[in-house]
């Protein structure tokens, strides 16, 4: 997106897949297939990131060597911990001055509440950064500050004078001391990544049970340390894992296809105003043009042009297997959380919308472009950029977001992608919460008494817009039989 290039941050999850064969692979080996979901790091887009984490089998967390663990990283780690998602940590920007690596490891353990085990170790940092020692492969990788050049890699015994020849006496001595300390303090490599089975699959380590996080060091901008991470990742990362549905646990080896929509991208091709719904295949095999049951609609649907993405290129695919991400053309039939199966009634959960914290009225600023405005707003809200509520008292549309930046993204995308202009107007609200009750009379009484604060979300559910914390707490006390939900999934 242009706005991402201008601001230098991600505002939406991007999806891509590629085949990767490590340099150590034998001739004729089959490449590993890697599906990458790159999530926004900015806290205003946390909701998109949380939803994406429901579709992953493992996560790589990037930490700045100078800043250490940031607030957003803590929140993401909580979600990974809730779902027992295996995590690898990459400490970035080692070519700049940063904090002591041991100090960083202590912070990672304390802040992310997970044991760590370095699988590579930096030799100095900043202007004196000479490279990393790959503990996992017992190899020395020397750093050259150049994105175009391949890293010089040496397999050496660190207890010989060969190490001094490459990095100098002081750094060689420091590296030996650091590695000795690592072996004495942190879990062993076998404890971390597990053992290799007869069929060449590595499993059974603390990494797979989400108890230990392997740590790598490098400089992503200079493409240094990334290959070592990838080589290790494809070797130890888990294959597609079972997915929990409301009805049962769905195993990836099952014959019948099932999957769920975890992300919708609006306007992926500005020339056609097309939307793509991204489906995580949970089990079986997805086949192009096959009929599948859309659980939400209760209808059978077919897809003639399912796609997969590699950077800016997309290609039509004939089939996909468990663990794959498939882009399905969406003409308004999907919403986030929808399930597709071969006929079985399954409901995959865990993709909630959180209660927004900032609210503004949105108005069409150009009456001649009302159709474009309506279409753009509808597609962006379906994508999950923000939440739209219609006030029952005055019929005005209210957009709720987690952060200020989302308002700017909505305005920018409406103008540049849909050729429509919007105007924001202030509204004083504290919290939006979804309400339900088994007591119909009390629910109706509440809606009448709070009529000016009642709204509907895009799915037509009742939402109470409290203008202060006091009003909300009094409503909860006065109406005991009404449930107030702060996520949309209940």
By DSSP, the count of extended strands is 32
Gyration radius, rounded: 25 Å
Poorly predicted spans: none
**Main β-sheet, spatial strand arrangement:** 28-25-27-26-30-31-29-32
> How would a crystallographer describe the biggest sheet?
8 strands, antiparallel
Average of per-residue pLDDT values: 86
Report helical residue fraction: 25-40%
Beginning-to-end CA distance, first to last residue: 33 Å
Which structural class fits the helix and strand makeup?
Answer: alpha+beta
Task: Write down the overall geometry.
Answer: globular
In DSSP terms, counting alpha (H) and pi (I) runs of 4 or more, how many helices? 12
**Beta-strand level of the residues, as a percent range?**
25-35%
Describe this structure in words.
The protein is globular and about 80 Å long. The protein contains twelve helices and 32 strands. Helix 2 (46-53) packs parallel to helix 3 and helix 9 packs across helix 10. An eight-stranded antiparallel beta sheet has the order 28-25-27-26-30-31-29-32. Strands 19-18-24-15-16-23 form a six-stranded antiparallel beta sheet. A four-stranded parallel beta sheet has the order 3-4-12-5, sandwiched between helices. Strand 15 and strand 16 (274-283) form a beta hairpin. The protein is α+β, with helices and mostly antiparallel strands and 490 residues long.
Topology:
Blueprint: H1 2-7, E1 14-20, E2 32-38, H2 46-53, E3 59-64, H3 71-82, E4 87-92, H4 101-112, E5 115-118, E6 120-123, E7 131-134, E8 139-142, E9 152-155, H5 162-167, H6 169-185, H7 189-193, E10 194-196, E11 202-204, E12 212-217, H8 226-236, E13 243-244, E14 249-250, E15 258-269, E16 274-283, E17 285-287, E18 292-294, E19 299-301, E20 307-310, E21 313-316, E22 319-321, E23 325-330, E24 339-341, E25 358-364, H9 370-383, E26 387-391, E27 397-401, H10 404-417, E28 422-426, E29 431-437, H11 440-449, E30 454-457, E31 462-466, H12 469-478, E32 482-485
Helix pairs in contact: 2-3, 9-10
